[in-house]
Amino acid sequence: MAEENQDGQEKTEEPTQQRLQKAAEDGQLLTSKEMMVFTTLAAGLLLFMGLSPFFDIGLGAWSQLFVIDSAENLDTLGLAKVRYGFWLVILVTMIFGIPLMIITVLTQAAVGGLNFSNKAYNFKSNKINPISGLKRIFSMKGLVELGKAVLKVVLLFSIGALVILQQLPSITHLSLSSLGQGIGRVTELFPYLVGALLIALLIIGAIDYAWQRHSHKQKLMMTLKEVKDESKQTHGSPEVRAKIRRMQMQKSQESARQRDALDNVGSATAVITNPTHFAVALKYAAGQAGAPQVVAMGRGPMALQIIDRAKDARVTTLRIPMLARALYFTSEIGGEIAEGLYNAVAVILAYVFRIDSGETMDMPELTLPPELRFDENGKPEQGAD
């Protein structure tokens, strides 16, 4: 049966990637203590077997602690022995401890990943609440932990007893052997005993890993409402996403129209620029009915392409930022210019017709209505450009 949250809703949905990531940031990682015990003990056994040829050297170094060459200066000699023993313990600890620590970290990385989160070490009041403690003890997780502990004791004790009973004749004869022979025999029996125990620990570790994986997943399961709320927080509400998609589609269609209109630049009468931020290509034939038509326009890279096309087609290009912005923000490709721009565009087209016919004259001054003056973001501005 699916778990329920505090609102009584069933957690039926798989945890999302965001939920898993947040859990990892909070220190809630999949972990298996029994699998760590198995890998650590296995690594320790391999390390023990690999270093066994050096045990005689280590035993000799350790025996030096108990050798007193002279009865003189016992205080100084005792202090030297203590210092020697201390560094010997440190050396043995490093030889065995560092590799085993690395194995433990690698095991956690393989089981559930690593994440050194400070949140995992934060104080939580429910951990010292006796009622919460009792609930944890008598919960399903507590019962499973109890079952694992019982299984571990039974398996380890049974296998250990079988190995010891099998090797009992050799063990009873250790008292008749010399110290070196005894150590050699124990060295032979130790891997055999630990290897047998490792089989039991592997079984327990596999069971624990399967349970921890299931328990971790169930703990992170989500209700349908939680999934929807997370989706809203991440991507916005469906209405907002639909509006964004419409805006993206409109922008894409507008860009497509601008690209298609590039082929019309060669037929334009003039191109008005800002000089490179905006470019608007106008077409008008003397005597035609209607207002001048916008055959192409664009901003940024598209404006540069329009200017290049106009240059190749020898279309007159004029740098009039104020008029270029007004045309861009009030016109559509294929449509006529805004009525408020008739006078300004008429003056410019008359100027273009005259210079195209060979006349030389200065650029006329233009005046635009205040409501048709825009900045580069399309916001109305007051005053001259």
Overall description:
The protein has 385 residues and is mainly alpha-helical. It folds into two domains: 17-233, no CATH class; 244-372, 3-Layer(aba) Sandwich (name from scop). Helix content is 60%, strand content 5%. A four-stranded mixed β-sheet has the order 3-2-1-4, with helices on both faces. Helix 2 (33-51) runs antiparallel to helix 8.
Overall, the morphology is elongated
Q: Please give the domain count.
A: 2
Helix content: 55-70%
Structural class: mainly alpha
Largest sheet geometry: 4 strands, mixed
Overall pLDDT level: 79
Bin the strand percentage.
Answer: 5-15%
Sequence stretches where pLDDT stays below 50 over 5 or more residues: none
Number of continuous helical runs:
13
* Element-level helix/strand string: HHHHHHHHHHEEEHEHH
C-alpha Rg, in Å? Answer: 42 Å
Question: What quaternary form is this?
Answer: single chain
Strand order of the largest sheet: 3-2-1-4
Number of strands: 4
How far is the N terminus from the C terminus? Answer: 71 Å
Architecture blueprint of SSEs:
Blueprint: H1 17-25, H2 33-51, H3 55-63, H4 74-111, H5 130-137, H6 140-166, H7 168-172, H8 179-220, H9 224-235, H10 238-261, E1 270-273, E2 278-283, E3 293-299, H11 301-312, E4 316-319, H12 321-330, H13 342-356
Parallel strand pairs: 1-4
Antiparallel strand pairs: 1-2, 2-3
Helix pairs in contact: 2-4, 2-8, 6-8
